[in-house]
Amino acid sequence: MSFLALMVLIVYESRWVYPEIQAYFSQTGNLTGQQLATRSRVYLQNAQSELLADQPEQEAFAAAITDIELSYGLSDMHVYRHQYECTEPSLRILNRVLARLEVAEIDRVGAVGELFGPIQCLTHIEMDQLDQRGAAINDFSVSTRQHNQVLTYSSLLIFVMGLVFWWLHERQLRRTDHATQETFEWMQRAMRDPLTGIGNRSALHQDVLAKQHQSLGLILIDIDFFKQYNDAYGHPQGDTLLRQLATLIGETLNDEAQLYRLGGDEFAALLRCPDTETLKSYCCQLIEGIRAADFAHPAHPDKKGVTFSVGGSRFMADEATFAYAYEAADKALYRVKAAGRDGWQVTEDA
């Protein structure tokens, strides 16, 4: 009877248990796929950082090309092409961006925007690979509980093994979740201006894409004679003024706008805008608000306090119209500067 029981146990393990354990271990290849997708995505994010960094365009393009080529090499895998429909379009986008960067036929912001699609695809691959591993360990745990009802000792052994494997998987999953959370936090920080806490150029572009087909107003705000202010008070006081002005702009627009810092002394505001008259009202409020605040400016050539030059445009949100709207608002801003600053203009029908 003991021999028969042993044979039954051996047959049971060889017929049902061993193949299921093998099936579980066969899923470990998914971790490598997830790691490659993660590395590829990080290279694309590095390329975005290089493009947005404060460095000469030629150096930024060269660094970005290197990162994109590394990402392409990790993404161009048969398993990705076979399992994920977004892989082929993403690779075509990377090829196109590389070609345009090599001949400098694309600006930095445009190149950064092009890379969001491949990044999203790689993130999907990462998550799917993790889901496959999660499904494998879950199936294995269910199978272990079933074995416990048939053979006490064998199911106990399998159950212990299952706990060990589950613990290893959970430990790896926690590490992966922590790394993913750190990546998300890094992406959020990359979209913020560290001095004022408001968005930056990348955040502006991303927010416009998130508001497809909505009627929006874009307002560009330039601090008049900010260099002279820094020369008079020093850069620490200049930084304090920038933070104060960011708060003032938000309060003046009744916190209805999303704010961005585009450069040293240039801000932008993006807000819902049903018509041009509403946009004009917002621009007028900004000029009146800064005048009422009466920030001292001892080096102002016109003996005034801190003043704004404001340009605006209204548009229906999508990637193509945003470029025209930005150009239109910028032209309106420079018309104000040419007219003596401390004022506003709006380009209609941008």
Automatic annotation (TrEMBL):
Keywords: Membrane, Transmembrane, Transmembrane helix
A GO CC annotation given for this chain: plasma membrane
A molecular-function term among this protein's GO annotations: diguanylate cyclase activity
InterPro entries, A to Z: Diguanylate_Cyclase, GGDEF_dom, Nucleotide_cyclase, Rev_trsase/Diguanyl_cyclase
GO biological process terms on file: cell adhesion involved in single-species biofilm formation; negative regulation of bacterial-type flagellum-dependent cell motility
TM region(s), chain numbering: 150-168
Keyword field contains Transmembrane: yes
The protein, known as: diguanylate cyclase
Source organism per UniProt: Vreelandella maris
